[in-house]
Design brief:
single chain; mainly beta; Ribosomal Protein L25, Chain P; Thrombin, subunit H; 2 domains; seven-stranded antiparallel β-sheet; six-stranded antiparallel barrel; 1 helix; 14 strands; 48% strand; elongated
Length: 216
């Protein structure tokens, strides 16, 4: 994996560190960046093995950056991580898309460019896959490309409402009880919403991997 260029282009609100098994190791706002190295500081930091491979997520005001690196220093007061690979912020919609099957509801919809006063929907949907940038789901409701919808994300500790734009509509050919499949991109997401979805994606990715391993 080739080294990345300097990461000084943006300041993260915080940095989350995960193990390769997608388990949360730590979450910190106390950090500094030197070249391709992130230096996390604090008291009673978890001990990490030298050269352990980790995943990291840097949260910006308007998006996230996915990273992979290895631990070079680990003490109770400081952890140094050399970043080996980093996705650009504008590419985040292409990162870590996972299959999922949770059911939720579309609460509201309105036409793009129209009044924010929308049509109450309260329609069931079933998610097919999800990423930081968007979601694919099944529904019997007719939506149009460019339409804005509000859907409930109920896979965290506290459900919250996501705003999304319909970018793709397909007739569903598989007999699943739904007529249509929609691809949507998330818009106006908060940093907290991105964080919860990212945690869910990592958790679901691990569950899917374990299921495949078991089925073998």
């Amino acid at each position: 994996m080739k080294a990345v260029r300097s990461m000084s282009e943006g300041k993260y609100i915080k940095v989350d560190v995960y193990s390769v098994d997608r388990e949360v190791i730590l979450s910190s706002k106390n950090y500094s960046i030197e070249g391709n190295r992130i230096i996390l500081k604090g008291d009673h930091l978890p001990k990490m093995e030298h050269k352990a491979v980790i995943k990291a997520v840097g949260y910006l005001e308007d998006g996230i950056v996915m990273m992979e690196g290895k631990v070079t220093i680990s003490t109770e007061m400081q952890i140094n991580i050399e970043i080996l690979d980093k996705q650009e912020k504008e590419d985040r919609r292409q990162s870590i898309k996972v299959r999922t099957e949770f059911r939720s509801r579309i609460l509201k919809a309105y036409r793009s460019g129209k009044s924010r006063k929308g049509l109450l929907i309260n329609e069931e949907m079933e998610a097919r896959d999800i990423s930081i940038g968007g979601i694919c789901f099944y529904s019997n409701r007719i939506f149009l490309k460019g339409q804005i919808i509000y859907l409930e994300f109920n896979q965290g500790k506290t459900p919250f409402v996501l705003e999304a734009e319909v970018v793709r509509k397909e007739q569903e050919k598989v007999k699943r009880g739904y007529k249509y499949r929609y691809g949507c991109r998330f818009i106006n997401m908060t940093n907290h919403q991105q964080e919860i979805i990212c945690e869910y994606i990592f958790k679901k990715e691990l569950e899917n991997y374990k299921k495949i391993a078991t089925d073998r």
